[in-house]
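Project standup — Tuesday

K.O.: blocked on the structure for the chain from last sprint. Re-posting the sequence here as requested.
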Amino acid sequence: MRSPFPARLLHSLGAAVALATIAGCASDDVTSPSRSTAGAFTVDASTQWVYVSLRDSAIVTPTPSANESTAWDIAFNATNVTLNGGQAGPGGVTGACLCQNSLTSPADAQWLAMTAESELTDFESVASVAPSTTFTADVLTPAVAGWFTGSGAAAVASPESVYFVRLADSSGVAKVRVTQLQGATATSAGRVTIEYALATNGQAAFGASQTATLDLTTGAKSFDLNTGQVTTNAAAWELRFDGFTARVNGGVSGPGNSAAAKITAVTFAAATPAATAPNAFRIDVYAGIFNTARFYKYNIGGNNRITPTFDVYLIRRGSAVFRLQIVSYYSATGQPRHIGIRYQQIAQ
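H.V.: unblocked you, prediction finished:
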């Protein structure tokens, strides 16, 4: 079927995005002064967060920071998608997934056969918001989760949960698990004991296991896996425990390059650096509906590629609701993390 957006509009939007990606913005002002209720373009989310205003069909640079700016509606970074609401920002943006494809659970061959053109009818058919639609706000979604069970004073460690953590300076990787909680309270995990081992890269063997105990009863603690010490250096830590939250020094939690991947079907002792693919590592993000209903399938063709689900999402900000569909993850030349979207305002 023919695109619902005129070729001239698609061309102008693409040009605006390309310009914004190269030049950026000096403030919360958008790259284009014109308002539009529909659009389609691709953002280069390969190296950093890209913030988009659906109301203005443009990329914006949030100032002074993303979680203090109302200028953006949705942001992209690799496979991560954040909405400007909840804990992520002051915009009050929420989302819902109609998930018309995911709910039918197609076979892998059917997923792989989907295209932007074949799934256009699903996008165009969403004309209004059903009364039963539940919208979700974004919350912190840490890469390290599931390291304890229970809650409050009854919380206990989950030593069977093993994580690979990339070091903040990208110099190597560690395997980490939480082995014990002592003196947990309603608001704090108490004294947290971790076991960890370091490897200089993704192929080298892990060194000897080490342990450390972080006392959260006196406040949050940031831990440098390289030195085995608690640190106040913002660039040096890999793991930060605060209450019952564990953060990595990357994404929304810190300036480093840390990321984490949870390892399954292998014990801590047996885990090797090659036990997971590099693209399995995740940073800390703010996420809501795009975390519970991801926009992609991974490796279903056996080629380690991202395949969009072409599910239709609803993005609500104030009195405006947009239908949105992510239609591509690769550029025309095959470069990953180039997110193609189309969207259009619909009736409430």
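K.O.: great, moving the ticket to review. Helices lie at 7-23, 108-113, 120-124, 289-292. The two ends are 26 Å apart (CA to CA).
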